[in-house]
Amino acid sequence: MAALRNLFRGGKNVFGVLSRREFHRSVPAAVQLTYRDALTQAMDEEIERDETVFLLGEEVAQYDGAYKVSRGLWKKWGDKRIIDTPISEMGFAGIAVGAAMAGLRPICEFMTFNFSLQAIDQVINSAAKTYYMSAGAVPVPIVFRGPNGSSAGVAAQHSQCFAAWYSHCPGLKVLSPWSAEDAKGLLKSAIRDDNPVIFLENELMYGVPFEVSEEVQSKDFVIPIGKAKVEKEGMNITLVAHSKSVGHCLDAAAALAKEGIDCEVINMRTIRPLDIETIEASVMKTNHLVTVEGGWPQFGVGAEVCARIMEGPAFNYLDAPAVRVTGADIPMPYAKILEDNCVPQIKDIIFSVKKVLNV
């Protein structure tokens, strides 16, 4: 028997053929995680880790959430940790802010960030300013989260992007994840942060699966707030985007690569604080810049990025003016053909890149 074992030592027999055991050591298939499930995991893990964390909002408990982001959490954690609220954003946002001031860590879900305008006094005047006005004595560790930006067929009153709105206000941190990795790592960091955080999800991304590493699946996985990620390296031009627009930039970069144009794609992840250093380093390498966002152009995220580049050391490296790709400067139409022409498309990014590069 010992001689027989020696024949198969190391997983191979004397003829170099893999044993059955070796087949089971093959690299496992990549794990896929949807954007929605990444958010659910993040909340579940943080509720388990910290007894002061709880979720409240419309339909988050028994109905599992309007977009099923809180699916299964009420059955697991019960009424104390997962709380259904009336349709009154000002009311339950105020309760959440008060709870944060009292030492809890609420996650306040808006069914859409368009409805956060009902509670904007609580978000801005109560949550954002109290830490500063109390000289650091009263932290407000709260996360306001929910879908942001345009969806599909929901018209003007449900289609604003609030990235620029909320990032205008000191005292708030504003996060805008693109991938499942972003969603999980950033939400966990947001829940642990002592500042109020605006967490802007995207309704059209909830069901999108992403391949994730073992690191991302860990309960200890977090992404630092205020750090962008270079999703694709390139030499000819820098594309800067957040949320769903990152995917459009990657698709545009793949199409442009066939024409010999090498794009660098930066996923902002955090809108405030803005990681301008990563963007500057990229622009100083590529000498060209295009920003992409779903929001309106005036005073938008792209406008801020372009202004910061103009004011900083990267300006002297630009070989052409920076260009913004944005949503149309009108309220969102209901008709699909008009809606499609109001949000940035891959073709719009390709057109702008060629315009900047003069090709």
From TrEMBL:
Domain Transketolase-like pyrimidine-binding, chain residue ranges per copy: 33-208
Enzyme Commission code: 1.2.4.1
Cofactor: thiamine diphosphate
GO biological process: glucose metabolic process; pyruvate decarboxylation to acetyl-CoA
UniProt-annotated location(s): Mitochondrion
UniProt superkingdom: Eukaryota
Principal EC category: oxidoreductase
InterPro entries for this protein: PDHB_mito-type, THDP-binding, Transketo_C/PFOR_II, Transketolase-like_Pyr-bd, Transketolase_C
GO cellular component terms listed in the entry, alphabetical order: mitochondrion; pyruvate dehydrogenase complex
GO molecular function: metal ion binding; pyruvate dehydrogenase (acetyl-transferring) activity
Pfam family, one: Transket_pyr
Keywords noted in UniProt: Carbohydrate metabolism, Glucose metabolism, Metal-binding, Mitochondrion, Oxidoreductase, Potassium, Pyruvate, Thiamine pyrophosphate, Transit peptide
Catalytic activity: N(6)-[(R)-lipoyl]-L-lysyl-[protein] + pyruvate + H(+) = N(6)-[(R)-S(8)-acetyldihydrolipoyl]-L-lysyl-[protein] + CO2
Assembly information from the UniProt record: Heterotetramer of two PDHA1 and two PDHB subunits. The heterotetramer interacts with DLAT, and is part of the multimeric pyruvate dehydrogenase complex that contains multiple copies of pyruvate dehydrogenase (E1), dihydrolipoamide acetyltransferase (DLAT, E2) and lipoamide dehydrogenase (DLD, E3). These subunits are bound to an inner core composed of about 48 DLAT and 12 PDHX molecules. Interacts with DLAT.
Function of the molecule: The pyruvate dehydrogenase complex catalyzes the overall conversion of pyruvate to acetyl-CoA and CO(2), and thereby links the glycolytic pathway to the tricarboxylic cycle. The pyruvate dehydrogenase complex catalyzes the overall conversion of pyruvate to acetyl-CoA and CO2.
Designated name of the protein: Pyruvate dehydrogenase E1 component subunit beta
